[in-house]
C-alpha cells in the first residue's frame, strides 16, 4: 500500500506533469471505484489543473475548483502514459484499469488496481474535506507543528493501545501504514506491542526522532523518482518490513514476523524486544 512518502512523491511527480494541463476526459471503467455523484465526473472535463497535493495517503488533484481525490488502497497505483489510446476503455471485471485521465496534449494517467479485492476509491468534490477519510485524518507527522510534545499528547490519549496500531491509525496520525510503522519502531528499537502510554521521556524523544527521520529520509530518497520506480525504491530501503527470515541490517539477527488475519508485521527481536520473540497466534494455532 502506498504510504506517506510514496504519495508525497506521486503528488510531486504528477504536479510537474499536470501543471497547466487541461483535463479532456475522465473514464471510470471500474465504476465501483467512484464514491461520489455530485459533482459528476464530467465536471472535471474542460478544467485546468491547478495543483496536486496530499492529505495523509490521499492524493488530491485540484482542477478549476474541482478536486479529484484518490485513495490507492492496498493494490492501487498510478501509471503515466505519454500517449493515451484513442479508444476509450470498456468496463471489465478482468481489467486492472480503474480510472483514466486524458489530457489536452494526448497524454494522461491510468489508475490501476491489481487483485480481486477492489478497495481503490475515487471522489469528485468541491472541497477535499468533503471526503470522510480526509476529514477524519489525524495530524500530518511531517509538519512543523508535529512536535515531541504533540506526539506525547497523542500517545497519552491512546492509553494502553499498542504502539504499532497507534502509529498506523489514520485518525490518530495521518499517512503511516503497515510498512513504515514497522520501520519506525525498528529505528526506535521498540516493540510493536509496547503500550502507547508507557514511554519514558527519553523513549518519547527517541520515537519522535525515529518517526520524523524515517519518513523524512524516505521522502528525500523518493524526491524526483518517477512513479514507475517508487515501489522498488521503497522495498529496497526497508530494514525489517517485508524481510522475514533475512538478517537485520543493524545487529544481524533474523527478522521475525507476527501474522494476523489479513496482514503481518516484521521486527527484530534483538533490537526491539530484548531478544524475546513475540507470540504469533496464527502460528501457535497451527502448531497445536
How are the SSEs ordered, and which strands pair?
Layout: H1 4-18, E1 23-27, E2 49-55, E3 58-63, E4 66-71, E5 76-81, E6 97-103, E7 108-113, E8 121-125, H2 132-135, H3 148-158, H4 163-168, H5 178-188, H6 201-222, H7 227-236, E9 255-259, E10 264-268, H8 269-272, H9 281-287
Helix pairs in contact: 1-6, 1-7, 5-6
Family: Belongs to the FPG family.
GO molecular function: 8-oxo-7,8-dihydroguanine DNA N-glycosylase activity; damaged DNA binding; DNA-(apurinic or apyrimidinic site) endonuclease activity; lyase activity; zinc ion binding
Domain Formamidopyrimidine-DNA glycosylase catalytic: 2-120
Query: Overall pLDDT, averaged?
Result: 93
Q: What's the alpha carbon Rg, rounded to whole Å?
A: 20 Å
Major beta sheet, strand line-up:
1-6-7-5
Instruction: Provide the domain count.
Output: 2
- The helix/strand series, from N terminus to C terminus, equals HEEEEEEEEHHHHHHEEHH
CATH architecture of the largest domain: Orthogonal Bundle
Terminal Cα span: 33 Å
**Uncertain residue segments:** 283-288
CATH topology of the largest domain: Helicase, Ruva Protein, domain 3
- What class would the helix/strand composition place it in? alpha+beta
User: Helix tally?
Assistant: 9
Portion in strands:
15-25%
Q: What form results from the Cα inertia axes?
A: elongated
The count of DSSP E runs of length 2 or more, i.e. the number of strands, is 10
Overall helicity: 25-40%
GO biological process, one term: base-excision repair
Keywords: DNA damage, DNA repair, DNA-binding, Glycosidase, Hydrolase, Lyase, Metal-binding, Multifunctional enzyme, Zinc, Zinc-finger
Cofactor: Zn(2+)
Organism: Nocardioides bruguierae
Amino acid at each position: 500500500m502506498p504510504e506517506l512518502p510514496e504519495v508525497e512523491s506521486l503528488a510531486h511527480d504528477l504536479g510537474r506533469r499536470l501543471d497547466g494541463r487541461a483535463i479532456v476526459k475522465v473514464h471510470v471503467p471500474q465504476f465501483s471505484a467512484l464514491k461520489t455523484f455530485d459533482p459528476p465526473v464530467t465536471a472535471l472535463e474542460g478544467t485546468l489543473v491547478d495543483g496536486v497535493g496530499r492529505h495523509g495517503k490521499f492524493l488530491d488533484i485540484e482542477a478549476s475548483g474541482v478536486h479529484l481525490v484518490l485513495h490507492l488502497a492496498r493494490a492501487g497505483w498510478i501509471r503515466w502514459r505519454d500517449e493515451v489510446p484513442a479508444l476509450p476503455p470498456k468496463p471489465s471485471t478482468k481489467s486492472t484499469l480503474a480510472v483514466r485521465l486524458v489530457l489536452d496534449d494526448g497524454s494522461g494517467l491510468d489508475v490501476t488496481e491489481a487483485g480481486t479485492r477492489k478497495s481503490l476509491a475515487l471522489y469528485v468534490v468541491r472541497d477535499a474535506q468533503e471526503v470522510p477519510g480526509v476529514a477524519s485524518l489525524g495530524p500530518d507527522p511531517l509538519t512543523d507543528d508535529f512536535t515531541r510534545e504533540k506526539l506525547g499528547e497523542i500517545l497519552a490519549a491512546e492509553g494502553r493501545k499498542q504502539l504499532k496500531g497507534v502509529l498506523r491509525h489514520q485518525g490518530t496520525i495521518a499517512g503511516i501504514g503497515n510498512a513504515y510503522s514497522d520501520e519506525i519502531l525498528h529505528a526506535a528499537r521498540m516493540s510493536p506491542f509496547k503500550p502507547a502510554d508507557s514511554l519514558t521521556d527519553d523513549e518519547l524523544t527517541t520515537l519522535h526522532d525515529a518517526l520524523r527521520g524515517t519518513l523524512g529520509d524516505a521522502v528525500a530518497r523518493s524526491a524526483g523518482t518517477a512513479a514507475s520506480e517508487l515501489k522498488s525504491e521503497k522495498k529496497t530501503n526497508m530494514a525489517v518490513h517485508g524481510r522475514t527470515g533475512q538478517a537485520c541490517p543493524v545487529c544481524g539477527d533474523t527478522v521475525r514476523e507476527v501474522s494476523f488475519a489479513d496482514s503481518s508485521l516484521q521486527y527484530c527481536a534483538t533490537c526491539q524486544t530484548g531478544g524475546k520473540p513475540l507470540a504469533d497466534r496464527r502460528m501457535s494455532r497451527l502448531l497445536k
